[in-house]
Amino acid sequence: MYFKGDHDLKAQIKIVLQNLLEKTNYAASKESDIRSTFEYPSYDPHVYGSAFCQRSKPEDCAQCLRTAKKMLLRGCYHNSGAEFYSELCFLRFEFYNFIS
């Protein structure tokens, strides 16, 4: 599936990725499980997302996720999904429910 020129879709993806960054950064600051999932089902297609950080300093997690978000939004928002992996973090969005 490939989406072209859909600004509402890009806005949905931004909402999902930003929510994941906030939830994951909060977990990192509390030294709890540093995994987050989020679903944004307001429109069709739904957008699902997942984030993960290795146990490290919260600021390292935050920086890694910000970089991942920029990379995904720069070139991948028109695809049906995308993933970013690094040694410190992981960020993913899809238009199917891979979470449950």
Automatic annotation (TrEMBL):
Species of origin: Linum trigynum
Signal peptide per UniProt: none
Domain Gnk2-homologous, chain residue ranges per copy: 1-98
Keyword terms of this UniProt record: Repeat, Signal
Pfam families xrefs: Stress-antifung
Gene3D superfamilies, per the entry: Gnk2 domain, C-X8-C-X2-C motif (3.30.430.20)
Protein name: Gnk2-homologous domain-containing protein
CDD domains: Gnk2-like
Domain of life, per lineage: Eukaryota
InterPro entries with a match to the protein in the record: GNK2, GNK2_sf
